[in-house]
């Protein structure tokens, strides 16, 4: 009987300890879990549902600097890019190696249900291979042994190519001042950038021109009606502009997707 009551008392004591939040997590294990969670989150950020072609350098420039964080409780995390190369549109994709270091400050439970933890630290390296320039983007994320090397300087972030905010006004002005024979040349002169696609059509008395950076979902289509009225604008669904779809085309007006 005594041993039975002793067992009950021991179990009761364990329940009380758990319910008052006196358990403590291992700091190193907690830090390692946090480091891998950071690696996964960065991977998700680099592969949105509709991925545009990106160089590994661009991905590093835009997604790594913001990951250097000091937290109010004394914990911290550091993300360093050790190497990068390739492009998401390449068969082998954009390849990136990150080193992620997490230092966890100790925490003592001070409320019911709170869980304490010991101080701890962890460092891991993650290899990313990102392939895709439309819907079929893929992310391969693997944990690897950390190279024995210092992190090189980070590349400077640059904005992806895009149409100027005045593109619709410029296109309307072109459509007002040209005719069917000179339409293509006039639009090309107004939008000379090599990353801008141009398509023109003359149909049923209408002049139609489309200019855009389809990979970025950036497209403006302008129409001059037979009565001389002109209107240009964008706002087309991004999925229509993806590679393999209709793209930034005059067909957005003449034969829009169903």
The helix/strand order is HEHHEEEEEEHHEEEEHH
Could you say which structural class the secondary elements and strand pairing correspond to? alpha+beta
Give the count of structural domains: 2
Largest sheet: 5 strands, antiparallel
Strand content: 25-35%
Ends: how far apart?
Answer: 79 Å
| Helix proportion | 25-40%
Shape: elongated
Quaternary form: single chain
**Tally of DSSP helical segments:** 7
Rg to the nearest angstrom?
Answer: 28 Å
Strand order of the largest sheet: 2-3-4-6-7
Number of strands: 11
Unreliable stretches covering 5 or more consecutive residues = 1-22
Overall pLDDT: 85
Characterize the structure shown.
With 258 residues, the chain is of the alpha+beta class. The protein has two domains: 118 residues; 88 residues, no CATH class. Helix content is 28%, strand content 28%. It contains seven helices and eleven strands. The strands form three sheets. It has a five-stranded antiparallel sheet. Strands 8-9-10-11 form a four-stranded antiparallel sheet, covered by helices on one side. Strands 1-5 form a two-stranded parallel sheet. β9 and β10 form a beta hairpin. α4 runs antiparallel to α5. The chain is elongated and about 75 Å long. The N and C termini lie far apart (79 Å). The relative contact order is 0.12.
């Amino acid at each position: 009987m005594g041993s039975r009551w002793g067992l009950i008392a021991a179990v009761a004591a364990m329940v009380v300890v758990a319910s008052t939040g006196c358990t403590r997590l291992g700091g190193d294990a907690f830090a390692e879990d946090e480091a891998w969670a950071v690696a996964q989150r960065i991977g998700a950020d680099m592969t949105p549902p509709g991925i545009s072609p990106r160089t590994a350098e661009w991905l590093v420039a835009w997604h790594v600097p913001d990951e250097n964080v000091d937290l109010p409780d004394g914990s911290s995390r550091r993300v360093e890019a050790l190497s990068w190369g390739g492009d998401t549109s390449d068969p082998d994709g954009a390849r990136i190696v990150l080193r992620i270091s997490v230092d966890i400050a100790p925490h003592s439970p001070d409320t019911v249900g709170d869980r304490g933890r010991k101080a701890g630290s962890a460092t891991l390296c993650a290899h990313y291979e990102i392939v895709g320039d439309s819907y079929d983007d893929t992310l391969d994320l693997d944990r690897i042994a950390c190279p024995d090397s210092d992190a090189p300087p980070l590349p400077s972030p640059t904005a992806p190519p895009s149409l100027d905010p005045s593109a619709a006004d410029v296109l309307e002005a072109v459509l007002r001042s040209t005719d069917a024979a000179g339409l293509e040349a006039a639009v090309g002169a107004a939008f000379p950038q090599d990353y801008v696609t141009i398509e023109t059509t003359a149909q049923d008395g209408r002049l139609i021109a489309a200019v855009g950076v389809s990979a970025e979902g950036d497209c403006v289509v302008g129409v001059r009606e037979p009565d001389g009225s002109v209107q240009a604008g964008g706002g087309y669904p991004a999925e229509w502009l993806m590679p393999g779809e209709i793209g930034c085309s005059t067909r957005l007006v003449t034969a829009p997707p169903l």
